[in-house]
Recover the amino acids of this structure.
């Protein structure tokens, strides 16, 4: 099986992911953080960063495995 | 909803449910856990405080200020220390820090509550519940005295508030678990969905394809044809359909074995597939029957494709070192003129295929006249039934001349049908119709009865004419035939010796045991049996020899052939048949005698009886009587020179 890093995240999907990541990051690290606990903040930050990376590269490994593609095909 | 979405939703649903249950359980259990933890912490503290108070108490040096100092050193500012004697009297208490907290409980109430606590030794920790605030408490006896020290600490409910560490951790964990759950669900569901799709595809392939050849099967042909006809209707296109089968495939299977036959079917499928276009479809209908669908093909395309198929199958098939030649018959039906539905087209192509097979042609187009279920055939069938019931049929008689004596030895009865609308119907059209529709029994009965009746009439008129009647294969499967004929002979007062039954070789061979039985019984009744169209069937001579046959009628194709290009070979055949017949003790009748030259040679070969247009065509009763009066009684020599050729008077024309 060849791994081809083909785009599989559509524009809308990307925006959504960036939005969610921003909210998470703000909650975990923003000024006067909403999450004071460092463990919880760590988990949320990790999730947010992963999501953000996927959104910016427009490639989600999970989508590839599951055969999902939210790019507009037409 | 696709299976993957369902799986995904189920997974996420279960995870959410688990998270909610987990959260709720944690929420319920936490206060209890916190209380018991605080209480046991207080218990430890109270023991330490008790130990510290032992000496000062012995000195009588304990007051509120001392207790307050102890509190600062050992416990915390919001903990409350109360010292009670054995009778629950307050010996002293630490200062209750004055707070501006409006939920604070008045110290006097706390003291009263502590005094009211059960004094038994076993209960030494718990929670005091005031309306607005809860206090965890624990007490320890002071070693060496009967006094008891009690510590109280307000329970904090901070952990229950949103935004607390607990909440944050719960939420973060839930988020993480959800993330993992979605991952797992997507992964699993995609694996399961892929497996399922593979299985489904395999199943649907099996359902739509033939196991042996791998070609589409009848079901898929139907679906495909249905789609095509729907599309063709919209676009005004045509669709060509062939149904083809291999001639004598059963023989190949029987003699060479089924594996051989299977191999042949595979090779046929591959060859035909090889010459078809991309969009064409070849399906195996079962047995040795195939169907080919040609989208957009009209009659011309169909013919050229049919020829290509015939051509490609003409090449020998080499299987297990054997070279096998096969022939196929194709039936062609074209959408829309030959049927507007898939099943009708297939049925019509099938009909055409049988027609092609019967006539020995490579291919045949569907023709509603051939179809036993077409409207014309249905009306004809019902007309024929009416004609039989109402005596609208007619018998014509063709004289048979005994060559040695020149006498008319008998006549052959031939059925004629004058249709009220369509006019004269050729026997080779309505007799096969009768055979296919089951009317042949009634038709044979009618002909037999009419011929025997006429024979009886002639007998009473003093004419000694033997009447020959043709029997079909169907009659030889009817065990009541001898009894039926005996009844008719009786009814019309005709001697059995004056009846000749003509049977073709192939009719004799169809169900040969029953046929032989019937023929033997007819013979015992005294009826003469003649083999009709001899030389065209494939019967075993040894078998024929065992049958009580009285006459052999040489097929007219040989007799007529004696006058054509291959005259010598036909003459050889005729002479051989004459010799053969005489050797097994049969008389020989030559049909289709049309001129003097042939008649001369037949006479030279030793043919006993001749029949044909040279003498007379089949005649109606009155005409026959007239013919007999004018020339029939003359001898053959005379007849040869005087009779005009009657070919021009063929009734069919």
């Amino acid at each position: 099986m060849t791994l081809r890093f083909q785009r599989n995240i559509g524009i809308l999907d990307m925006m959504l992911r960036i939005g969610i990541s921003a909210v998470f990051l703000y909650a975990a690290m923003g000024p006067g953080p909403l999450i004071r606990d460092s463990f919880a903040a760590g988990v949320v930050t990790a999730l947010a960063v992963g999501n953000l990376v996927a959104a910016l590269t427009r490639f989600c490994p999970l989508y590839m495995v599951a055969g999902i593609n939210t790019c507009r095909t037409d | 909803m696709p299976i993957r979405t369902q799986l995904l939703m189920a997974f996420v649903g279960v995870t959410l449910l688990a998270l909610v249950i987990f959260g709720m359980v944690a929420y319920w259990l936490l206060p209890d856990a916190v209380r018991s933890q605080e209480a046991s912490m207080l218990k430890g503290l109270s023991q330490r405080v008790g130990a510290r108070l032992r000496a000062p108490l012995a000195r009588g040096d304990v007051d509120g200020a001392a207790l307050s100092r102890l509190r600062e050193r050992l416990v915390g500012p919001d903990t409350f220390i109360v010292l009670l004697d054995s009778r629950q009297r307050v010996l002293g208490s630490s200062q209750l820090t004055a707070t501006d907290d409006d939920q604070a409980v008045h110290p006097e109430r706390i003291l009263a509550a502590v005094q009211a606590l059960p004094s038994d030794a076993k209960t030494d920790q718990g929670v005091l519940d005031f309306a607005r605030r809860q206090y965890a408490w624990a007490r320890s006896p002071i070693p060496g005295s009967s006094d008891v020290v009690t510590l109280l600490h307000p329970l904090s409910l901070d952990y229950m508030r949103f935004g607390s560490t607990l909440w944050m951790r719960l939420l973060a964990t839930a988020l993480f678990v959800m993330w993992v759950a979605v991952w797992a669900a997507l992964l699993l569901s995609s694996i399961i969905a892929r497996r399922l799709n593979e299985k489904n595809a395999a199943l649907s392939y099996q359902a739509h394809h033939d196991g042996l050849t791998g070609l589409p099967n009848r079901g898929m042909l139907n679906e495909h044809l249905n789609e095509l006809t729907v599309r063709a209707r919209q676009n005004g296109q045509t669709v060509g359909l062939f149904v083809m089968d291999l001639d004598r495939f059963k023989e190949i299977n029987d003699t060479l074995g089924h594996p051989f036959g299977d191999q042949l079917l595979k090779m046929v499928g591959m060859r035909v597939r090889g010459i078809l276009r991309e969009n064409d479809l070849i399906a195996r209908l079962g047995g040795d029957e195939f169907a080919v669908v040609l989208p957009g093909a009209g009659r011309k395309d169909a013919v050229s494709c049919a020829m290509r198929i015939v051509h490609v199958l003409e090449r020998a098939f080499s299987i297990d070192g054997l070279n096998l030649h096969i022939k196929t018959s194709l039936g062609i039906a074209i959408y829309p003129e030959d049927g507007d539905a898939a099943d009708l087209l297939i049925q019509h192509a099938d009909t055409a295929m049988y027609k092609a097979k019967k006539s020995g042609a490579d291919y045949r187009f569907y023709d509603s006249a051939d179809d036993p279920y077409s409207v014309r055939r249905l009306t004809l069938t019902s007309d024929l039934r009416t004609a039989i019931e109402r005596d609208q049929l007619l018998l014509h008689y063709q004289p048979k001349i005994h060559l040695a004596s020149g006498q008319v030895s008998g006549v052959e009865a031939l059925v004629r049908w004058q249709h009220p609308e369509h006019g004269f119907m050729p026997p080779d059209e309505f007799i096969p119709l009768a055979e296919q529709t089951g009317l042949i029994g009634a038709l044979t009965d009618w002909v037999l009865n009419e011929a025997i009746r006429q024979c009886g009439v002639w007998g009473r008129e003093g004419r000694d004419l033997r009447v020959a009647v043709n029997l079909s294969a169907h009659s030889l499967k009817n065990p009541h035939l001898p009894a039926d004929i005996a009844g008719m002979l009786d009814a019309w007062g005709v001697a059995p010796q004056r009846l000749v039954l003509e049977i073709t070789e192939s009719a004799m061979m169809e169900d040969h045991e029953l046929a032989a039985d019937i023929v033997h019984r007819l013979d015992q009744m005294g009826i003469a049996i003649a083999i009709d169209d001899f030389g065209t069937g494939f019967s075993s001579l040894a078998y024929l020899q065992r049958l009580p046959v009285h006459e052999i009628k040489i097929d007219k194709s040989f007799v007529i052939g004696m006058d054509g290009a291959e005259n010598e070979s036909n003459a050889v055949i005729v002479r051989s048949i004459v010799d053969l017949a005489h050797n097994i003790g049969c008389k020989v009748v030559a049909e289709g005698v049309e001129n003097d030259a042939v008649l001369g040679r037949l006479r030279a070969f030793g043919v006993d009886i001749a029949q044909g247009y040279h003498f007379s065509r089949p005649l109606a009763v009155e005409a026959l009587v007239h013919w007999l009066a004018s020339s029939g009684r003359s001898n053959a020599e005379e007849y040869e020179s005087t009779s005009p050729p009657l070919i021009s008077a063929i009734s069919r024309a």
Remarks:
- Residues 633-653 of chain B have pLDDT under 50 and may be disordered.
